[in-house]
Amino acid sequence: MAAADRLNQTSDILSQSMKKSDSTASIVTAEVPYKVAVVGSGNWGTTIAKVVAENCKENPQLFQERVDMWVFEEKIDGVPLTKIINTKHQNVKYLPNIDLPENLVANPDLIETTKDADIIVFNVPHQFLGRLTHQMKGHIKPTARAISCLKGFEVGAKGVQLLSDYITEELGIECGALSGANLAPEVAKEHWSETTVAYHIPKDFRGEGKDVDHRVLKKLFHRPYFHVNVIDDVAGISIAGALKNIVALACGFVTGLGWGSNAAAAIQRVGLGEIIKFGRMFFPESKVETYYQESAGVADLITTCSGGRNVRVATEMAKTGKSAEQVEKEILNGQSAQGLITCKEVHQWLEACGHIDDFPLFEAVYQITYNGVPMEKLPSMIEELGLEEDKE
């Protein structure tokens, strides 16, 4: 046999071996398939529920097929929304014209939805989280795990707290986070995008095949049109996911004023700096590289500042002079612009700990939104940032 032939044969054997090894490595099973539930049925909640239900059906060795989605019951033309979802298989109010998997079951009872779940995915406006976790206490499996898709913080006696940590403390279950450059309508239409899931393996991890780990979460969320990277920096992606909405409001202000792409780019540059500074100052366990390497970081910032609820609300505020509350009510069809709440929470925290001057953009957005400061003053309100950084 010629040397070239031997080389080609060896290469073929190695290639086949690697393919076989890769195939084996990709097989993930559970001793008892995990039951998955989704809490929340808005635009993004229904989209994530669609993703999850598709994967649960395709991976019976790992997940139970039926996925329950808790829906805040309301009537559409006199018909309960849950009934419409379960018969028409579309969420006609919050995600119209998108077909949902038949194994996704809308449930108006929060306790029934979550009581037997092994994995609970939270996807509601974060101002409602406290009320929901209060109802769930004592009614979920103590071995359950959770993923938060919420954007924002809990600010209280304990200071500023990640919502994933809040869920862990309130319910006694380990909670990770999902965040990325994901506009819900595009994901729902199966246009390719990517996201980041962060999950820290807890000390009481029960072992492979018995408990949720990174491979299980990859199987739960990864789709051909929705690529997932799983990491352990829960703090980093949570911070980026929450604070980018404040930056998006600022981008909406300059867009509505007609100042163009240069102004929007400047806002994003300053905003990214404040996001990183906030993480390093208050959550030192977060990793700086997460903000620029992961979809949950700069990619999400760019996407959110070019579209989405917060930009739309702020742009309309600038064009019409209407209040944030009025615009939100008029254009979001019952949904929330989370940046409006987050900028208030961040202001309260920075004021309490004496760091308002370290975050001029975040403070400017708060003052414009809640105290009627003219948007035209935004450049002068943030121009001292560079000087402050030079002093450090």
TrEMBL record:
Its EC number is 1.1.1.8. One of its GO terms (cellular component) is cytosol. It is an enzyme of class 1 (oxidoreductase). InterPro entries: 6-PGluconate_DH-like_C_sf (IPR008927), 6PGD_dom2 (IPR013328), G3P_DH_NAD-dep (IPR006168), G3P_DH_NAD-dep_C (IPR006109), G3P_DH_NAD-dep_euk (IPR017751), G3P_DH_NAD-dep_N (IPR011128), NAD(P)-bd_dom_sf (IPR036291). One of its GO terms (biological process) is carbohydrate metabolic process. Residues 35-200 form the Glycerol-3-phosphate dehydrogenase NAD-dependent N-terminal domain. This is Glycerol-3-phosphate dehydrogenase [NAD(+)].
